[in-house]
Structures are given as structure tokens and as C-alpha cells.
């Protein structure tokens, strides 16, 4: 859903609808079948939001094991000539981990992420990113992902710890005093 600008009441209503959608996924009222595309984290999300022209625009599909996205980095995300910047590769992994939450059924945020860059990610070449949950220990989710080129070579992999939070963590985040997390 498009986030309206300028009108605080409209922004709050859009946010409320967005949170309600997530809540219904987490409550199991809405599910996404294997092979279907998962909804973006928000319309403006830098990883997957279709309304963010500076973003990656990841389109993520649910799989039997977790989630998957086929993505080609564009000129907007160049580092060294012809090669995607390592930071945007990390963004792709982090955002993909955000989709694994649909399969776990919990809200969580990145506490740490480690990326291995096995080969350069060449611009305009498709890479298949796959991510899944490996383990849950209390509030800690251990997640793992890999990215493969079309020749079947692994270009990168990532491991992350996400920490489960309540919906309050996201609500009015910008207005919340530092240290008051949900
Ligand atoms: C309805 C709403 C809809 C929203 C939709 C959006 C969906 C999501 C979109 C996703 C978009 C993409 C993703 C994004 O971009 S997410 C955005 C980027 N990430 C953040 O902004 C997170 C910022 N950090 C925090 O807010 C706090 O630090 C959190 C909430 C994470 C924890 O602070 P809190 O004070 O609450 O907890 P704690 O410090 O006691 O720790 C908790 C537990 O974790 C264990 N631990 C800690 N560190 C590590 C470590 N390095 N390795 C292993 N374990 C570690 C620790 O021992 C403890 O374990 P246990 O003792 O309980 O067993």
C-alpha cells in the first residue's frame, strides 16, 4: 500500500493497515502457498518496496525450504565498475531474511549479519538468492542464505541472528525515545 504524504491521519491509517496485514500473517489467518510471491515489507522498503526507485525491488517467492528471489543488480547499485557494491549485496541478504519471517511466523529484526563474498556480483547478471531459518533459541533466530549465479557457482552467502520483537517495536518508531523497544 502507498504511504501517503503530508496528512498525519492518513499516514497513521496506512500504517495501521500495514500492521494489521502483518498481524494476520503472524496469526496464521493469511498464508502464502509455496511458489507464490510474498508481499513487500512496505511499499517504500529499500530492499523490496515497488515504490522506492532507489531500492532493489526484490520479488520474493515462498519455497518449500524458505524463500527465494532471482535478482540482477543494476547500474544504480554499482561499486567497482561493472560490479555490485558489497553493501547492496548485504542489503539483498538482509531483506531476504526479512521474508523468512513469514515462514517462521514471528516479527524479528536483524541483530547481526555476516556476509561472505565468494565472487563478484556482476551487474545485469541474474543471481538466485535462497534463505531459510536454521534454528530458533528463545528470541534468537539463526538464518542462512546463499546466492548462486546462472552457471551454478555460489557468489555469496550470509548468516544472521534476528531477535524476535513485538509489533510495538515498529509502531511510531521515529517518535519513540531511544532505548524503548518493543
Ligand atoms: C506488525 C508490524 C509489522 C512490521 C513489518 C516489518 C517486518 C520486518 C522487516 C525486516 C527488514 C529487514 C531486516 C531489517 O532491516 S531490521 C532493521 C535493522 N535492525 C535493527 O534496527 C535492530 C536494532 N536493535 C534493536 O532494536 C535491539 O538490539 C533488539 C530489539 C534486536 C534486541 O534488543 P533487546 O533489548 O530486546 O534484546 P537483548 O539485547 O537482550 O537480546 C535479545 C536476545 O538476543 C541475543 N543476542 C543479542 N545480540 C546477539 C548477537 N549478536 N548474536 C547472538 N545473539 C544475540 C541476546 O543474548 C538475547 O538472547 P536471550 O538471552 O533472550 O536468549
TrEMBL record:
Entry's family note: Belongs to the THEM4/THEM5 thioesterase family.
Molecular function GO labels: hydrolase activity
Taxonomic path: Bacteria, Bacillati, Actinomycetota, Actinomycetes, Micrococcales
Protein known as: Acyl-coenzyme A thioesterase THEM4
Domain Thioesterase, chain residue ranges per copy: 82-153
InterPro entries hit by this protein: HotDog_dom_sf (IPR029069), THEM4/THEM5_acyl-CoA_thioest (IPR052365), Thioestr_dom (IPR006683)
Bilayer topology term: Peripheral membrane protein
Entry-linked CDD domains: PaaI_thioesterase
